[in-house]
Amino acid sequence: MNNQIQNCIDIIDYLSNYHKLIAQFSFNTFHSYNLLQERIDLEGELKPVFEKALKIRAQTHLPFWDSFNVSVFDTDLKDFDFLNEIKFHNTPKFTYIIQKEAVKDFLLEQKEQDYLTICSKVILSDGSINHIPLLDFHIPVNEKNEIICEAVIRTLGLKGFLLNSGKSYHFYGMNLIEETSLIDMLSHSLLFAPIIDRSWIAHQLIEKKCSLRISKKYSRLPFKIRDI
Fold it and tell me: What letter would DSSP give residue 137?
């Protein structure tokens, strides 16, 4: 294990030095948005669906929307406007394109309250575009699940860094890939849901690029736990 790499910022710095052809990295900020219960009326026919979804999530650790969709089964609903909330997609608010020489300083200058993400898209010195393979897991943090994550990553044919993101895991791949390979990777990753977050995959496929949080949450940055 490379002990000099401690967290997500170290990994980005390492990739910057490892891939000599990278000229620019990109980072995104996103609009804040209200929770589902603040966007739709949950006092009517959806109230039991929502309450059941919360119970399923608590019992199974499934993502909320997976729990919600299961809770819709066999219900006698009349109003389906809530389906628009399921397909809600939060597009990036702003994208920073940073020269690789300035990336580490840029990241260290970010304020602690800012919600910043690394974008998989990198621009090479010849102007072409590649992507850093990124994955967002939705499996609780413990030693057994860490081994499961590694097995999934290896099954997908990837190598890189597994990070503890606070309540689950992030993954950064070592080898750059083109957009078609990124779509292929995400499509195959969907077969491993909910170990890998299904909703996250869907939103990355919509964008045709990936984003992972690199700002602090739960009082610390996502930190590396093993090389794969």
Answer: B
